[in-house]
Amino acid sequence: MSSHRKSYGQRAADHSNPAAQLLLHTIERKKSNLAVSVDLTKTSDFLKVIDVVGPYVCLIKTHIDILEDFTPDVIERLKLLSAKHDFVVFEDRKFADIGNTVALQYSSGVHKIASWSHITNAHPVPGPSVITGLASVGLPLGRGLLLLAQMSTEGSLATGSYTDDAVRMARAHREFVIGFIAQRRMDHVGTSPSSLPDGVEDFIILTPGVSLEMSGDSMGQQYRTPEKVILENGCDVIIVGRGIYGKGTGDALDVGCVALQAEKYRTEGWNAYLKRIGSTGPTS
Amino acid sequence: MSSHRKSYGQRAADHSNPAAQLLLHTIERKKSNLAVSVDLTKTSDFLKVIDVVGPYVCLIKTHIDILEDFTPDVIERLKLLSAKHDFVVFEDRKFADIGNTVALQYSSGVHKIASWSHITNAHPVPGPSVITGLASVGLPLGRGLLLLAQMSTEGSLATGSYTDDAVRMARAHREFVIGFIAQRRMDHVGTSPSSLPDGVEDFIILTPGVSLEMSGDSMGQQYRTPEKVILENGCDVIIVGRGIYGKGTGDALDVGCVALQAEKYRTEGWNAYLKRIGSTGPTS
């Protein structure tokens, strides 16, 4: 049976990477495959949105390098929120350099990403050294890596043989690469069903560009619905941004409305998952 | 005549982008096509190495996000050194996200890269929106962008049609994309000589992985000599790192030795260039 027909809880048992286990258990526990991408530049807005959406998500996706008033205290408060609301943290750093450099970028600098982000991601374009460089820092800390096998932007070059190579690279480093940022499942990509039976590998698929309303922005981003992404394309986690918190700044943040939107996406994503694994009827 | 057969000074006149003009004029003025990549994690080491190699380089390449004790004061001191020694600054950020995100990463966060780095770079993998997103911030400031058309690491996916697409993407945004990080010239890549006569476009090629001694590191980096890079492959700027400053930390930094190494690379790179443009005899 293909991995994505199993429950998240069953799949957690098949993973040896601690970050993959944590994510799958969190999804099961919170009945949420919703991740919220918090792309805000002020710490106060950033922490406020996370506190509001926290109860509804399995994961918070950050761009720590856009916070203009970042201090190490932000990380302490993010950790507290992660414990309070029980979510996994994913710094969407998109590492894309040679091994020696990404190891420094991951461990050092003012942001010290490896010390607090359970999961991070990388582009496979530099070749396998981007994985081994990050693994040299992240594996001892129990971290997990997602590779960008595809992108949701118009004219992306992560297609065809690029995607195949990304999956092969991940397959060769399964102890650290726990899944992909992609638009669909990657089972059997870069190999054949006969040489790799169903269920032997289980890459977790996180999918950005999810929205119930918009069809695109002015900067090349393209959107799809939770049902399409989870049910049709077999992805595991939907990543939603401004579709949930709007502008998300200062007085413009309507806490009740944001919570309502988060719950709406959580329900949509979870019901699509229940249909996928053939469970009896959706929950509300 | 292909652009790389002209002098750097002549080429400056053909560029309309201010960052490209600045770089080409600086190379001509200082008789140096040497860039030093300063990959150090302590501010004191970082600034000290830059002060030592500054007289010999046209450009300093930074990874500002690995400085563990970064404060805004580092940027002020970097700007002073840039003025003192007359070099261009290139933050090697390798942006690789959707347009909206890279615009925030470039302009905001604690590092505010666009405010001080004359040149930065991006992977073309997200598609054209990575360029337009960065251009929305960088063009009004007179900045320039390099695309990563190739990488010097083993197993890199930036080859074949990926490289062709990168060059086509650059060609469609010539007002902001001033050149490439690549291993060789990109003239006529992704097009035909007949549809694009020699000398119509002039992308500046900056090439990492240059060393007089080493053949590789343990993390997949591969090396070539300045002569091979400038003369055989037609690249314009050689990027050298630890080949010049060694470990570069604290007491381990032998100032005289580092200056000597920098001068050696500058001479090698410049003489290769003189041979290329057919100038009479090398300078020492």
Automatic annotation (TrEMBL), chains A, B:
It comes from the Eukaryota. GO terms for molecular function: orotate phosphoribosyltransferase activity; orotidine-5'-phosphate decarboxylase activity. SUPFAM superfamilies: Ribulose-phoshate binding barrel. PROSITE patterns: OMPDECASE. Residues 33-255 form the Orotidine 5'-phosphate decarboxylase domain. Its EC number is 4.1.1.23. It catalyses: orotidine 5'-phosphate + H(+) = UMP + CO2. Pathway: Pyrimidine metabolism; UMP biosynthesis via de novo pathway; UMP from orotate: step 2/2. Substrate binds at D39, K61, S152, Q221, G241, R242. It holds the Pfam family OMPdecase. The keyword Secreted does not apply. InterPro entries: Aldolase_TIM, OMPdecase, OMPdecase_AS, OMPdeCOase_dom, RibuloseP-bd_barrel. The active site is at D92 (for ompdecase activity), K94 (for ompdecase activity), D97 (for ompdecase activity). The keyword Methyltransferase does not apply. It is an enzyme of class 4 (lyase). GO terms for biological process: 'de novo' pyrimidine nucleobase biosynthetic process; 'de novo' UMP biosynthetic process. Keywords: Decarboxylase, Lyase, Pyrimidine biosynthesis. PANTHER family: OROTATE PHOSPHORIBOSYLTRANSFERASE, URIDINE 5'-MONOPHOSPHATE SYNTHASE. Belongs to the OMP decarboxylase family. This is Orotidine 5'-phosphate decarboxylase. It comes from Piloderma croceum (strain F 1598).
